[in-house]
Specification:
heterotetramer, A mainly alpha (328), B alpha/beta (394), C mainly alpha (305), D alpha/beta (251), C: 305 residues, mainly alpha, two-stranded antiparallel ribbon, 11 helices, 3% strand, D: six-stranded mixed beta sheet
């Protein structure tokens, strides 16, 4: 028999697939774009959830990775489209419009950034950790605004989406399928990692650092590894998001972006592998349904978020699927 | 300033319907789009919530006033709030083009949002009429046959400020702007027309609200005048603090910090400041008088620069519609290029890169009764086009 | 660069720092006593500024406006403490971050609903306008000087209250041991409401003082909020002394950084580029300061344990 | 005499003016249970922390199996063979009993950084974990969530977790607390048999348990070891009687 959680997972993934497919038949391309947005935000949330839900690392600076992923896309595509090189010394490095290469670079650079930020931030914990991650993201935000080479505050437009072998990525449904495929891949990897030796040890460190130490492992190493994986996933989402919009700007680095990614995680259910996907989908739905009700729709959004925190702990998954069942 | 604290928010039937359709389709499966009526469908993406909403609301109100006055009921306007976020603006433009199937887009206030939306929209064959932002790339190498700017090229008002400063005999100006592309463009624009020396040049942090440090540097610099470009709340803060500092040098700036909406928040600190604008509510033309009166009658407040731009944008659109059908892109484009409408700012024509050729005035901030407002005191640049015409190969 | 200019910049940094302290004091107290991260603290700052602007517009009195800022911000503080915040004390930081983030949305759009989208007008009174001459030929804004003095007076008052009064003893006890204070028979929930209202009043007061020389507008609280967080993290969360030192450090670093960095880069680069690079680095300077402090003292300069 | 497994020499620690450990000497030899007793506030917990590596002493040394570990972290000491149980249960409360034990076996094997194979299907780890659970008598409860266990059962789980490390020495902080009569009996019998696998440094309140189990007893009072010896030595030591057992008017 399927557990409630498994049922919810299946329903969610089916809905995310069926809505765009239906929209495709009905020629409502914007609905496809909207779902793509939810899928990409879902991936960003999965990234944060890996550090936050599994490792207990409350990062308010994941916009740093989201933004970096976006700029990797923007910069590489910009150089490829203008036939210029990223650098000419010590070796010539051209840009590219191949999505797969862009993803790889985004993942690697975000992981590297997460390694740096994590190594420094993990010297602290608790509120200090929240604030220092926020500070690092703010640093990148101001840097992106004032660095003129790639548009500064104006951002960078790339007009056409990057290439993916055999597909016309400008067609909303095809680009959606690419993102959906990546979502499945990321979900699969995270699902596996949560059940792996690393996942077991990381979860134990979140619940009780002393225990892990007494068993001969250093919690900091577990945290740092989790933070790097987390940053890499969010960086991938950033690259996809920039490709969806064909545009990247410093807004992706802003602290509101970090806050929104955190909202996806909490709305869906902290620590639930599929939670951020549900959270992102609900957020997009709220944004577009409330946005039509009133100019002041942020008030309603705020009230709903507040309600979730105060009365629906555990988010959508906590509400529907109940307490998390210890997995085996 | 007149507030209507509990005024009913502008009804957005189209977007509401769209949201309901979205909800319905999410649950019940997609419904087919409605058949299109004749006439034209306009998508307006502008800032209606959060910081800077005042500008978007003015553009929208000015635009809708013109549509209302035209008496045409075949112009459908879909209005959406971009929240001043570039990614939201891009999503909305996708929505306008893909779902709403609009013919013309307009409304964007901020250059960075315009840079995100315009190139993609015009590449898909839509017309874009800019009621405010005029970033230099869109005037130069990135110009496009379907992109028309009805306000100004971003540099224009700064160039006028530079010209005015030279004309007024300022020889040693201190200039400052936020450290972002529009800021660097502003200082470049000023320097293009300014002939004197610079006592100092400062880039401030975007969103900065305390200018004590900069004002101290102005005081120490030996400058004879100050030029600043600090849009929104930044300008309010600067002016209040500058007036209080007792530095007392003459100040020149573009109209953005002296707009009707902002001026009341600055108060007496702005009195006497010179600013450059392509429009002013006291411009002596029949079209402008009619606009100012009808705007006040409709909304119960004085119109702003942005409202005039929204109004002109709609009238340009209407003038083109009277001549050609929007489905005939070439004819419609030619009709837009003719700019055959009564602009609130007097003579108006398009340069070859589809940016305005217009007079730019110098205004002074004065107090009329209880209200702070602007009065025209002269002409800074006559029939000014822009510096990027030659970069545009259209 | 003259010495006079440098001293004036130091005064500016001091003034900025003192105002940051008013914001940071409430944040750090609320964290120290109740263990709560309050992102909505910036909204209380905004409430104070709007209350002051509305009162000044209605009565024309700046003093009444300042009083209104204290009263309304404290009232808003009590309101959200009773309705929302007190449910969050026992929650983890994550819930607190999200709930108070939601409060920001409600406050910001609610204020826009009430007051419209345009900035409001608030000006300092005539008797505080203009400049004063200080020794060494320094000419300085009378109002800013008043802000420094008022801020320092509030700081002294706060230190005195915490160190000497009965309520201060309870606050300190609450920081050290929440159960003990309940055992002492103190009405803990009243104490929490009081501390929260006090922090809110200070933030609102800062909002009104700063609103008079800046722009009273929706969203004015968030940039200050982030700075205030930087302050208390540098100072050590929960420490009033830390908040004071941190505020002055941040104020001076920001002001002097903006002023000195471009000068520094002009030694090596052509002026326009130097200004741009200097400005970029200056906008990152306080975050670099914070990262630096946390590297060497992971719990801030005046960590409570 | 065989070399001690755990050897503590001159361990000294003070917090400001308060001296919590004063030149403490203590050792643990193969095959023995060495009990550490003392009244509340004697400094037992701080001493255990210093031995385990959670607290740095001001001076003195700790040697484990001949190696100086004074400067090593808790994790490093655990890897060298120190199996610790806590006074207040320190477990991953959201995990099942089996998960907590598999965690121990995994950490002992050391390959924590494996990302894709499901750890709860690893036969070797499961076998080690189940063996440890059976030894402490928790075998039947392996699917229970740890937070749902009684205090006594958590104690047992702590011991099982320490067992999976196959340590060279056990450091047990009040393993009998909260067990009840029957549980205590069972645990005592178990600890009795455990001493042949690895010696136990036992901090315990339950005097009956201490006197029936221990080979040697050391008495800690106000941060000082005031007596150390066999059960009968301690029973008859007048210092202990006055300071600890409170038979003197000075108490």
């Amino acid at each position: 028999m399927m557990s409630k959680e498994a049922l919810l997972n299946t329903a969610l993934m089916a809905l995310l697939l069926l809505v765009p497919l239906g929209a495709w038949f009905a020629d409502e391309p914007f609905l496809i774009t909207l779902t793509t947005r939810a899928v990409i935000f879902g991936i960003a949330g999965i990234g944060l959830n890996f550090a936050l839900g599994l490792g207990g690392l409350v990062s308010l600076g994941h916009a740093a990775f989201f933004g970096l992923g976006g700029y990797v896309m923007g910069v590489l595509a910009y150089h490829a489209q203008t036939y210029t090189s990223l650098m000419t010394w010590p070796f010539e490095l051209p840009g590219t419009t191949a999505m797969t290469i862009i993803w790889l670079v985004a993942i690697c650079l975000s992981a590297l950034l997460a390694l740096g930020i994590g190594a420094l931030s993990l010297r602290t914990s608790g509120v200090y950790f929240i604030m220092i991650t926020l500070a690092f993201a703010q640093m990148l935000y101001y840097f992106a605004i004032s660095w003129p080479a790639y548009g500064g505050e104006d951002g960078l437009s790339i007009y056409v989406r990057n290439r993916f072998v055999g597909l016309n990525t400008m067609d909303p449904i095809q680009f959606f399928m690419v993102c959906y495929g990546l979502l499945l891949l990321v979900l699969g990897l995270v699902w596996a990692m949560a059940r792996s030796a690393f996942g077991l040890a990381l979860g134990a460190a979140r619940q009780n650092e002393e225990r892990v130490r007494a068993l001969g492992q250093k919690p900091q190493r577990l945290y740092l590894t989790a933070f790097v994986i987390s940053g890499a996933i969010t960086g991938l989402a950033g690259a996809l998001f920039a490709d969806l919009n064909r545009f990247v700007s410093p807004t992706m680095f802003s602290w509101q972006t970090s806050g929104e990614i955190m909202i996806f995680v909490i709305l869906g259910g902290v620590g639930r592998v599929f939670g951020p996907v549900a959270g992102a989908a609900l957020f997009i739905l709220l944004e577009y349904s409330l946005g039509g009700l009133s100019d002041y729709w942020h008030v309603y959004l705020g009230a709903i978020l507040l309600g979730v925190v105060l009365f629906a702990r555990g988010g959508i998954y906590g509400l529907i699927a109940g307490r998390e069942v210890a997995h085996d | 300033m007149t507030f209507k604290p509990f005024a009913k928010p502008f009804a957005l039937p189209a977007s509401l319907a769209a949201s309901l359709a979205l909800l319905a389709s999410a649950g019940l499966g997609p419904i087919a789009g409605q058949a299109q009526a004749a006439g034209v469908k306009v998508g307006m993406i502008t800032t209606l919530s959060g910081g800077g909403a005042g500008l978007g609301i003015d553009v929208r109100d000015g635009f809708m006033l013109a549509i209302k006055q035209s008496g045409r009921n075949d112009v459908e306007v879909v209005i959406e709030d971009d929240q001043r976020k570039p990614d939201v603006a891009v999503q909305l433009s996708d929505k306008m083009i893909q779902s709403e199937k609009v013919d013309v887009l307009t409304g964007i206030i901020w250059s960075n949002l315009a840079m995100a939306v315009v190139p993609g929209a015009v590449a898909q064959g839509k017309f874009y009429l800019s009621p405010n932002a005029g970033p230099s790339p869109l005037a130069g190498k990135g110009c496009h046959a379907n992109y028309f700017n009805v306000a100004w090229q971003n540099d224009n008002l700064h160039e006028a400020a530079g010209a005015y400063a030279s004309g007024a005999g300022h020889k040693n100006a201190f200039i400052l702007a936020p450290n972002y592309p529009a800021g660097t463009d502003a200082l470049a624009g000023f320097k293009r027309m300014y002939e004197g020396e610079l006592a100092g040049e400062i880039y401030t942090k975007l969103g900065q609200t305390d200018y004590a440090s900069e004002i101290a540097q102005i005081r120490a610099s030996g400058a004879d005048s100050v030029f600043f470009f600090l849009p929104g709340g930044m300008g309010i803060s600067f002016l209040k603090q500058y007036a209080d500092s007792g530095v007392g040098l003459p100040v020149v700036g573009p109209a953005f910090s002296f707009d009707q909406g902002i001026l009341q928040a600055v108060g007496a600190a702005a009195l006497g400041v010179k600013n450059t604008s392509q429009w002013s509510k006291d411009l002596d033309s029949a079209a402008n008088k009619a606009f100012v009166d009808s705007f006040q009658a409709e909304y119960g407040r004085l119109p702003s620069l942005y409202a005039s731009q929204g109004f002109d944008t709609a009238n340009l659109l209407l003038s083109a519609l009277a001549k050609a059908d929007v489905s005939d892109a070439d004819a419609f484009r030619a009709a837009l290029e003719a700019a055959d409408f009564a602009s609130t700012r007097g003579d108006f024509a398009f340069a070859s890169n589809h940016h305005p050729i217009q007079d730019i005035y110098v205004r002074e901030v004065v107090k009329e009764g209880d209200v702070f407002t602007n009065k025209i005191i002269g002409l800074a640049l006559e029939d000014r086009s822009n510096a990027y015409v030659d970069d545009c190969s259209m | 660069m003259s010495l006079v200019l440098f001293i004036e910049q130091v005064l500016n940094g001091l003034q900025f720092g003192v105002m940051l302290f008013l914001m940071a004091a409430g944040l750090t107290l609320v964290f120290g006593v109740m263990g709560l991260i309050n992102l909505a603290h910036g909204s209380l700052y905004m409430v104070g500024a709007f209350a002051a602007a509305a009162t000044a517009a209605a009565t024309g009195s700046f003093v009444l406006a300042l009083i209104a800022s204290l009263v309304f911000a404290a009232f808003a503080g009590v309101l959200i403490e009773v309705l929302v915040i007190r449910r969050l004390y026992e929650r983890d930081h994550l819930d607190q971050v999200l709930a108070t983030f939601a409060l920001i949305l409600i406050f910001s759009e609610g204020t826009r609903w009430l007051f419209g989208s345009f900035p409001l007008f608030l000006d300092k009174p005539d008797w505080l306008s203009g400049t004063v001459g200080l020794p060494f030929g320094i000419v300085y804004s009378r109002y800013r000087l008043a802000m420094i003095l008022v801020g320092l007076a509030v700081a002294v008052g706060l230190f005195w209250m915490i160190a000497k009064t009965r309520i201060g003893i309870r606050i300190r006890a609450g920081e050290n041991d929440r159960e003990m204070i309940a055992a002492l028979g103190v009405n803990i929930s009243l104490l929490h409401t009081f501390v929260f209202a006090l922090g809110a009043a200070l933030a609102g007061f800062a909002g009104a003082l700063i609103g008079a020389i800046q722009s009273v507008q929706v969203g004015m609280g968030e940039p200050v909020l982030i700075l205030a967080f930087v302050v208390i993290v540098i100072g050590g969360i929960g420490s009033i002394k830390g908040a004071f030192v941190g505020a002055l450090l941040v104020g001076l670093t920001d002001t002097l950084g903006r002023f000195l960095l471009p000068v520094l880069f002009r030694l090596a680069m052509e002026p326009s580029a130097a200004n741009a690079v200097g400005a970029s680095l200056a906008s990152m300077s306080i975050y670099l300061l914070m990262a630096g402090v946390l590297l060497f003292r992971p719990r801030g300069l005046f960590a409570s344990q | 005499m065989t070399d001690p497994i755990l050897e503590i020499r001159g361990l000294t620690k003070s917090f400001g003016a308060l001296s919590v450990s004063q030149a403490i000497d203590l050792d643990l030899r193969p095959g023995e249970i060495h009990a550490l007793i003392g009244p509340n506030g004697a400094g037992k917990t701080t001493l255990v922390k210093q031995i385990a590596g959670a607290l740095q002493p001001d001076s003195g040394s700790v040697r484990l199996a001949g190696q100086d570990v004074t400067r090593l972290s808790t994790a490093a000491r655990a890897r060298l063979g120190m199996g610790r149980t806590f006074q207040i249960s320190s477990l991953a409360m959201d995990y099942t009993v089996l998960q907590n034990t598999v965690l121990g076996a995994l950490c002992h094997r050391g390959d924590v950084f494996r990302f894709f194979r499901p750890v709860m299907k690893d036969a070797a780890l499961l076998e080690a974990a189940r063996r440890a659970l059976d030894e402490v008598g928790l075998g039947a409860l392996e699917a229970q969530r740890t937070s749902e266990l009684s205090h006594g059962q958590r104690r047992q789980l702590e011991v099982a977790s320490a067992l999976t490390l196959e340590p060279k020495a056990f450091l047990m902080d009040e393993p009998m607390a909260g067990l009840g009569v029957e549980g205590s009996q069972h645990m005592m019998g178990f600890l009795d048999s455990l001493r042949d696998r690895a010696p136990i440094l036992l901090v315990e309140h339950d005097m009956d348990a201490v006197f029936s189990l221990a080979d040697r007893i050391s008495v800690l009072v106000l941060g000082e070891i005031i007596a150390s010896g066999s059960v009968s030595d301690i029973r008859s030591n007048p210092l202990v009687r006055s300071a600890y057992l409170g038979e003197d008017e000075a108490a």
